[in-house]
UniProtKB/TrEMBL annotation:
GO function terms (MF aspect): G protein activity; GTP binding
Organism per entry: Ailuropoda melanoleuca
Source organism, top-level taxon: Eukaryota
Gene this chain is encoded by: RASL11B
Protein name (record): small monomeric GTPase
Keyword check for Hydrolase: yes
Amino acid sequence: MRLIQNMCTIAEYPAPGSAAAAADCCLGAAGRRLVKIAVVGASGVGKTALVVRFLTKRFIGDYERNAGNLYTRQVQVEGETLAIQVQDTPGVQVRENGLSCGEPLNRCIRWADAVVIVFSVTDYQSYELIGQLHQHVQQLHLGSRLPVVVVANKADLLHVKQVDPQLGLQLASMLGCSFYEVSVSENYNDVYNAFHVLCKEGTACCTRRAVGPGKQSDDRLLTAAMGRCQTPSLFSHRWSSTHVLELEKTPSFPGDFFSERC
Ligand SMILES: Nc1nc2c(ncn2[C@@H]2O[C@H](COP(=O)(O)OP(=O)(O)OP(=O)(O)O)[C@@H](O)[C@H]2O)c(=O)[nH]1
């Protein structure tokens, strides 16, 4: 239910490519640059757990299924305070003729500046979805290469592992994405690193959209300046002490950013 409410609000967002969207896409509350992140993947892979862990540092263990909540936070990236919105989504279903992504999910992907695609190392089918999901995401953002991070979750469940992390790394590398193997339940740092690199890439992508397709040399300079991470890395991202996640003392309410705006 909450997802539908959030998606309706997203639907009211200015159409991608419109002047309003270009002006709007980079500014959040208090005029901060805004990065919108969608978290997608099969059901039960730990999407909600991942988002909650990133935002609160906590692993609760039991989550409302298909929560589809939208969360807002501020993070510091390269010394700049950014507003980020993270949209949790319901698990993608697989049908005989391919992925089944409903319009609400598609809207969410179109809305996003960056996407986290999650699979579980305990679920081979969730891994098999990654390629299709990545293709779907890029199709919905034709003309701009959306930053995507592939996250392999549940690394702690060694005894029921079905996917070697190397496979995830290879696939991510083929797709041109960064890759992180994480255990949401046991390790916060890897979760943080995955989102952090995406915030950096998402900022660059968002700014490119605002600058517009006609300014490609600016675009290249900007990408270089932002130090966009192109190389997939396994356990390799380390952040300096200036990369601090600012966590609010109290959890924000899902969808609050959009409620404030509307
Ligand atoms: N052992 C272990 N369990 C995890 C981990 N991450 C998530 N889980 C568990 O996996 C189950 C599913 O997690 P969710 O976060 O609800 O998964 P989801 O992808 O949001 O699921 P849907 O809402 O159905 O799409 C929960 O019981 C979590 O506690 C992890 O890193 N390790």
